[in-house]
Specification:
By secondary structure, this protein is mainly α. The protein has helices at residues 7-21, 26-40, 46-58, 63-106, 110-138, 142-156, 161-177, 180-204, 210-223, 230-242, 248-260, 268-300, 304-308, 311-339, 343-358, 363-380. It has one domain.
């Protein structure tokens, strides 16, 4: 494809600016890109923008990052694909890295502990409101509600996340296709692959190493559908419960860091990587979780819009999306348990939820407010 003079430089500048200023999660990122690249700069038409957004939703990985990569490819070819994604990710990764450094250096001090105490209920509120908003779109039929409930029950009983996602997609495709025999053949390999991935991960990543950290986040980036909030379910299940690399408190603090920084929520991986392995850990975790997005966009860009028009393939995606929400719901319940016994946390969470849901206050401001509330409670206690 022919590239206009200066297009690559313009692509780098635009996505660096968006990466530095786009607070509020994937929906906000999409809105900023639409305003900047459709309305102001006219890189693509609104119809083309929606096509690219649909393509990003059909493949695993961080949706808003993949949309940025698609738009960079449209503007400046393959080099634009790489530059747009890197410039969108870089500000969030660097800011999260700085927060992780400060967390490791000062996290045990009393004032910092109080600050983090105020963050936890805000994180719960952000996750709960995001879940409610996504559920409006994802729960399109009674059948999908049933699939979501089944996925939540399976996850609560300890089923591996990949198995839950694959089975939910296969069952929804079976229902849509009205061909149980064919769908059963389709479901078995999906479930087998997921179970194999789960057992392989458990076998190779039980002992911490930089290689294991990279492979873990590479796997997550390659299979995780839905929003960045689904990442929480994977991290809690594997890094906290299965392998014990992180504590529950460290996970919640990592989520907060991903919320308070602009750009993709997947920058939480940078925080986790630094806590576990310092600067090399942050580098390999960030590279691992974002690398599949570049590969998927480059490989699937021309094909995905056609696949989405398939009745069965679209149904599979619907089932995976609903199961993703179920995983987030189960993790949200677990995060809420220790907060339920603290009246201050309940009040902070309720106020944050109202501000976020009814007044659409940015999650970054809420995280900052929660931190200040934690300090204030300690001061007056």
């Amino acid at each position: 494809m022919s590239v206009a003079p200066g297009a690559l430089r313009e692509t780098a500048w635009v996505f660096l600016k968006i990466g530095c200023t786009a607070f509020g999660g994937p929906a906000a990122h999409v809105a900023v890109m639409e305003d900047e690249l459709v309305r102001r700069r006219r890189w693509v038409t609104r119809e083309e923008f929606l096509d690219l957004l649909g393509a990003a939703n059909l493949i695993p990985g961080p949706n808003s990052t993949e949309l940025a990569i698609h738009l960079g490819h449209r503007r400046a070819g393959f080099r634009g694909l790489v530059v747009a994604g890197a410039c969108f990710i870089l500000p969030a990764a660097l800011l999260t890295l700085a927060l992780a450094w400060a967390y490791v250096q000062f996290g045990a001090r009393p004032r910092v502990v109080a600050l983090l105490h105020g963050l936890k209920p805000v994180v719960f509120a952000v996750v709960a409101v995001a879940l409610a908003r996504f559920a409006r779109t994802a729960l399109k039929s009674p059948a999908l509600v049933v699939v979501g409930v089944a996925a939540a029950v399976a996850s609560a009983w300890g089923a591996h996340e990949l198995l839950v996602l694959a089975a939910a997609g296969a069952l929804t495709a079976a229902w849509r296709a009205r061909a149980r025999g064919a769908a059963a053949i389709f479901a078995l390999p999906c479930s087998g692959l997921a179970a194999g991935a789960a057992s392989g991960a458990a076998a190779t990543a039980a002992a911490f190493s930089l290689g294991a950290l990279f492979l873990y986040f590479l796997e997550v980036g390659a299979v995780l559908f839905g929003s960045g909030y689904v990442l929480i379910a994977f991290l809690r299940s594997d890094l906290v419960e299965r392998w014990g690399w992180l504590t529950e408190t460290q996970l919640v603090d990592a989520i907060a860091a991903g919320q308070v920084t602009p750009g993709p929520v997947f920058s939480t991986a940078t925080f986790v990587g630094y806590v576990l392995g310092g600067l090399p850990g942050a580098a390999v975790a960030t590279l691992g979780i974002f690398l599949p997005a570049f590969a998927f966009v480059a490989a699937s860009g021309p094909l995905v819009p056609r696949i989405r028009r398939s009745r069965v393939a679209g149904a599979f995606l619907d089932g995976v999306n609903v199961a993703s929400l179920a995983l987030v719901f189960v993790v949200g319940v677990r995060i809420a348990r220790p907060l339920a016994h603290d009246p201050t946390s309940i009040v902070i969470a309720a106020i944050a939820a109202v501000l976020l849901f009814h007044f659409r206050v940015s999650s970054a401001w809420l995280v900052l407010g929660g931190a200040l509330a934690g300090l204030a409670v300690r001061f007056f206690d």
